[in-house]
Amino acid sequence: MNALFSEIVVIPVIRIESSERAVELARTLVDAGLSMLEITLRTPAALEAIERIASEVPEAVVGAGTVLSASDLNRVARAGARFAIAPGCTQTLYRESSDMPLPLIPGVATISEVMLGMEHGYEHFKFFPAEAAGGTAMLKAWAGPLPQARFVPTGGITIDNAPSYLALSNVLAVGGSWMVPEDAIEAGDWTRIAGLARACAGLRVGER
Known about the structure:
Elements: E1 10-14, H1 22-31, E2 36-40, H2 46-56, E3 61-65, H3 70-79, E4 84-85, H4 91-97, E5 104-105, E6 107-108, H5 111-119, E7 124-127, H6 135-143, E8 150-153, H7 162-166, E9 174-176, H8 182-187, H9 190-198
Parallel strand pairs: 1-2, 1-9, 2-3, 4-5, 6-7, 7-8
């Protein structure tokens, strides 16, 4: 899992309505310096978008978000996803994911959920919804009793508050959709998306 995040600071969280836009979107983001892409399973086009990016943009590290079940894990693995992210996690999903080579980043919002994930051997988590669940204050509080846990805060993250999250020693990267507005994707406005993505290049993490 650490290899996935070795040079990653920002993960675009992408909701895409048309797989026809997927390849050019991925190329735009990669060229702007964002190579790890999360395609959420919130639209019928998501699986095909993952498949096309995996096939046609090999320099992208494409994964799936909003993974809710073992069936989702199997489907995204077949599509070529290199990682999966869940908004939360259940005992069933933990159990099923242990038999799959696809790395899973389970979602957590409470310290008990982090402890449950650690019981299953996980140390990397999606902190979601980050702002609503306590933001940086919550992550600072968790750092003391859970020093081995690392987080990808997502939910309410913007270019303005991302630096405060990335300054924390227990944050690996942040996830957000501010650089991939749905109206820009639908319009094919790659210039706008490239500009927003390049603005992420100046963001840095604290101690890994």
